[in-house]
Amino acid sequence: MEIVDEQSDRLRELTDNLLDVSRIEAGVLSVRAEATELRDILEEALTLFARSSGGRRVEVRTQGDLPTVNADKRRIGQVIGGTF
Fold it and tell me: How far is CA 53 from the centre of its chain?
């Protein structure tokens, strides 16, 4: 049941992404930018990659503190290849 639940969520995400392509083409895609910690975005992306990498390790090195950015976290997740 857990696998079915995860896959149904994935199917919903794919459907939402396809609908967003239509919105982009129509010029009506909404973006909700808000102050977001870049470190949080990076950590969620790494978690997503780790799940889909088949056990391969993904490592990102940064220098110093990462800034707060004005971004739509959901849209960034779509671009990276998953949904946060």
Answer: 15
